[in-house]
Design goal:
The protein is about 25% helix and about 15% strand. It has about 220 residues and is an alpha+beta fold. The radius of gyration is 20 Å and the shape is globular.
């Protein structure tokens, strides 16, 4: 991309993505060459949304799409990432699911793929039924919870299609968004739904575990 009229950090970002794409293709070709493609599940995802580090401007390629926030935010732009699965004979090509899970679910999922069970007491839900196209068999988390100590500190809860965000964590006001109609989290609906806000407040208190390694900032 040296000949593009782009800032240098954006050229580097584009080059890294292209290199990654090429290397994933090489990996898939190698699986085919070794006769392993039909016996291998390939899962591709990310640990966070786009960032603004190293001089990169996330708006240049519109990296967050319609989502609010970036890496280290608990808004959707920071934590919502795609997950792509290739598993010939099991995952239907071109199929799409809106199942909501998190990285901890890999433990139960891969245990199920291997025909085993994960250790007891884990907050992990297998999404194998979703991969196999059996959504009616798919178990769901009662909620998902995030917290982040850096900066101002923050907490978030996904409760069905509702999303609660509190900044600073523990003491700040709770913002409420309906992700069905407000994917970009632009319209705080907390005043109109005090019952949902109270439930999210209870979940935040239930899910939070104080850490001896971090102090809550922004109180």
């Amino acid at each position: 991309y040296a000949d593009r009229d782009w800032p240098a950090p954006e050229k580097g970002k584009a080059a890294m993505i292209t290199r990654l794409d090429d290397d994933v293709g090489r990996l898939l070709d190698k699986l085919t060459a070794l006769g392993l493609a039909d016996r291998t599940i390939v899962i591709f995802t990310s640990d966070n949304g786009p960032h603004a580090e190293g001089g990169v401007d996330p708006e240049f390629f519109h990296s967050s799409g319609p989502l609010r926030g970036l890496k280290r935010d608990v808004y959707e732009g920071g934590i919502r990432v795609p997950l792509i699965v290739r598993w010939p004979g099991h995952v239907a090509p071109g199929s799409v699911s809106d199942h909501v899970g998190y990285f901890g679910d890999f433990m139960a999922t891969l245990a199920a793929v291997a025909g085993g069970s994960p250790p007891a007491g884990l907050d992990s839900v297998s999404f194998l039924p979703t991969l196999l196209g059996r959504p009616t068999d798919q178990a769901q988390h009662p909620y998902l919870y995030w917290e982040f100590y850096e900066g101002r500190s923050s907490q978030a809860v996904r409760l069905g299609d509702w999303k609660g965000v509190r900044r600073p964590m523990l003491t700040g006001p709770i913002e409420l968004y309906d992700l069905r109609t407000d994917l970009g989290e632009q319209h705080d609906a907390a005043a109109a739904h005090p019952d949902i806000v109270e439930r999210i407040r209870q979940i935040m208190a239930e899910a939070h575990v104080p850490s001896p390694l971090w102090q809550v900032r922004g109180r």
